[in-house]
Amino acid sequence: xxxxxxxxxxxxxxxxxxxxxxxxxxxxxxxxxxxxxxxxxxxxxxxxxxxxxxxxxxxxxxxxxxxxxxxxxxxxxxxxxxxxxxxxxxxxxxxxxxxxxxxx
Length: 104
Known about the structure:
The chain is mainly β. About 0% of the residues lie in helices and about 50% in strands. It has a single domain, classed as Jelly Rolls (Sandwich), CATH 2.60.120.10. A 5-stranded antiparallel beta sheet has the order 1-2-9-4-7, with no helix packed on it. It has a 4-stranded antiparallel beta sheet with strand order 3-8-5-6, with no helix packed on it. A hairpin with a 5-residue loop joins β5 (about 50-55) and β6. It is globular, with a radius of gyration of 14 Å. It comes from Falsiroseomonas tokyonensis.
């Protein structure tokens, strides 16, 4: 007997800023919510608003976990492809700043 297909609830992305320099999106996740598969065209910074645990689904079936600490940011390079899932039992939020232009 096969397992029925299940879908996760979507995370809510709220665009806060989008100009020639940056795109800023706040992401809010209920427990178990996901972004859906996507690829980042620019390098980006993630600033956690809340503590939480993410499940990162990666190409080829690999997975990884990431622990978020409110206020402790991290960066990622362009080209990252993944689905981000709230693996915790509480709501979580972060702000994502995509860097479109880096003038010198």
